[in-house]
Automatic annotation (TrEMBL):
<feature type="transmembrane region" description="Helical">
    <location>
        <begin position="12"/>
        <end position="36"/>
    </location>
</feature>
<feature type="domain" description="ABC transmembrane type-1">
    <location>
        <begin position="19"/>
        <end position="208"/>
    </location>
</feature>
<feature type="transmembrane region" description="Helical">
    <location>
        <begin position="48"/>
        <end position="77"/>
    </location>
</feature>
<keyword id="KW-0472">Membrane</keyword>
<feature type="transmembrane region" description="Helical">
    <location>
        <begin position="185"/>
        <end position="204"/>
    </location>
</feature>
<dbReference type="GO" id="GO:0043190">
    <property type="term" value="C:ATP-binding cassette (ABC) transporter complex"/>
</dbReference>
<keyword id="KW-0812">Transmembrane</keyword>
<comment type="similarity">
    <text>Belongs to the binding-protein-dependent transport system permease family.</text>
</comment>
<protein>
    <submittedName>
        <fullName>Amino acid ABC transporter permease</fullName>
    </submittedName>
</protein>
<dbReference type="InterPro" id="IPR043429">
    <property type="entry name" value="ArtM/GltK/GlnP/TcyL/YhdX-like"/>
</dbReference>
<dbReference type="GO" id="GO:0022857">
    <property type="term" value="F:transmembrane transporter activity"/>
</dbReference>
<dbReference type="InterPro" id="IPR000515">
    <property type="entry name" value="MetI-like"/>
</dbReference>
<keyword id="KW-1003">Cell membrane</keyword>
<keyword id="KW-0029">Amino-acid transport</keyword>
<keyword id="KW-0813">Transport</keyword>
<keyword id="KW-1133">Transmembrane helix</keyword>
<dbReference type="GO" id="GO:0006865">
    <property type="term" value="P:amino acid transport"/>
</dbReference>
Amino acid sequence: MDFSGAYTPDHLLFLLNGFYVTLKVAFISIILSFIIGGVIGTLRFANITVVSTILAVVVETIRNLPLLLIIFFTYFALPEVGIKLGITASAIAALTVFESAMLSEIIRSGLQSIDKGQIEAARSSGLTYIQTLMTIIMPQALRRMVPPIVSQFISLLKDTSLAVVIALPELTHNAQVINGQKGSYLIPIFLLVALMYFTVNYCLSLAARRLEARET
């Protein structure tokens, strides 16, 4: 184990550049998947017959596919039909598609967990369905959704490492490049990588706990 050789300034900077790519891809994917998943989950909760059925088929299909397969599809298969994405865009697209399906189910389940009597009471008081959803149901449901949503975000951050298969220059990819220079770098480099992932994910977990405690 060569810690001094592994932790040179150039190697550390290379890892930080990879970590920046990891965080950037994760952040963009989180924002997009939360928006798309929120829309899909809400539409499914609204139970519009044809729309809900189509969305249910799409969501269940995506949820039962390996993320790695979706990454391969976005980078290698889409160009065959005229849609060519760069490495970063392919990774973001694949993660967004996969996480949107996961989040939509969390959001739909959260909305369904609210007592239907509240919907009936709100409607009988003169509120429209949209007003009832936005002012009565959604605020309560979001409080219940916080832990699983943050857990899904943590999974997304870790899943960015799967994009190493398309050579996305993220943290794991850059760690492998450094490790390839000398076998004795393996343990020091991957210990540092593990610490970097752990630090961010642990901070997310703490933030989720505090938010959950504040809302209760």
